[in-house]
Amino acid sequence: AKAEPLFVEALQIRREVLGNKHPYTAISVIRLAHHYSAQAQYFRAEILYLEALKINRETLGSKHPNTASCLGTLGLLYSNQSQYAKAEPLYLEALDIKREVLGNKNPDTANSINSLAVVYYHQAQYAKSEILYLEALKIRREILGNTHPDTAESVNNLGQLYEQQVQYPKAEPLLIEALKINRGVLGNNHPTTAKSMVNLATFYSNQAKYAKAEPLYLEALKISTAHLQATAIIQSENAQILMANNDKFYLNTFLTNALDNHTPGGGYDHVLSWKGMIYRRQNLLRALQGNDPLKKELSDTIRQLATLLNSTPKPGEVNQYEAKVRALSEKKEDLEKELAKQIP
């Protein structure tokens, strides 16, 4: 809500000063489109992405990396809505441009290869998907190394492809490797790590190995719940509701596995915790308003923690990152205990 008028104003200035057919105007158009896309306002985002693509084609040409980026972003918009037939030609064109302009051994080229492979995967064209997943993984291992989040994404995607084809012996080591990379690079409390846990847990659950799946589902649910609660302070209420709806699959998958494993009792606390979560956080934020030094310190601490949890640690700094998260979490809990004495 605070970001939108600023994006709109920046775009308006560039339209007036630079005109509608300028690459910088296209950049502002794309940023506003990203803003709408992140809020699932796909219709408004689509109009802007199409405009930016048209500007870049006319001003930079059809073989420019920025044009390829626009094609890929528009393809992602359609892919997120499961409109894979519309996404495929955009991804193909973007990939052709990147192969020609950037070469085959480039991270951006690997991104386009991976995106196209995802489209084929969802269309059950597994043979075409596998070829591309393997190529993207090879490039990312060579360019980015074996311990990069993008490499983990390729490893995970390939593992899920084999799982879908019931090639379990090939799938399991890849899903384990993806989780190991994300734990090492992003830490144990990152949302991407939680997704890797769910992917591996689902692999076990689909084979009726419910006992092996349950601790992974539970850990992912705890990470997701903590992240939702911690990041509330830097999100609007609508953004919190959208995030909660998107992340509810962590709760649903945990409950489904618990039921199949005949251990449903442990689910009640998590269901109750999830209900009213946003309402409770809004009440906390309202309670923190005012000039009281303790309230201000707690509010600042929560904001620092939320910002940190929404960031990605730099390579080689995972231990320092997790230490900061622990320190801020402990400080927040201590301040909340102190404040609870004043506000029963």
Q: Quick one: overall form?
A: globular
Radius of gyration over alpha carbons? 22 Å
Mean pLDDT: 87
Low-confidence stretches: none
Question: Could you spell the SSE succession in H and E letters?
Answer: HHHHHHHHHHHHHHHH
Helix segment tally: 16
Distance linking N and C termini:
32 Å
Total number of strands: 0
Largest sheet: none
Topology:
Elements: H1 3-18, H2 23-38, H3 42-60, H4 65-80, H5 84-101, H6 107-122, H7 126-144, H8 149-164, H9 168-186, H10 191-205, H11 210-230, H12 237-260, H13 267-274, H14 277-287, H15 293-309, H16 318-342
Helix pairs in contact: 1-2, 2-3, 3-4, 4-5, 5-6, 6-7, 7-8, 8-9, 9-10, 10-11, 11-12, 12-13, 15-16
Main traits of this protein?
344 residues; mainly alpha; 80% helix
Descriptive account of the structure:
- There is one protein chain.
- With 344 residues, this protein is mainly alpha-helical.
- It is 80% helix and 0% strand.
- The protein has 16 helices and no strands.
- Helix 6 (107-122) runs antiparallel to helix 7, helix 7 runs antiparallel to helix 8 (149-164) and helix 12 runs antiparallel to helix 13.
- It is globular.
- The model has no long low-confidence stretch (mean pLDDT 87).
Sum this structure up briefly.
The chain is mostly helical.
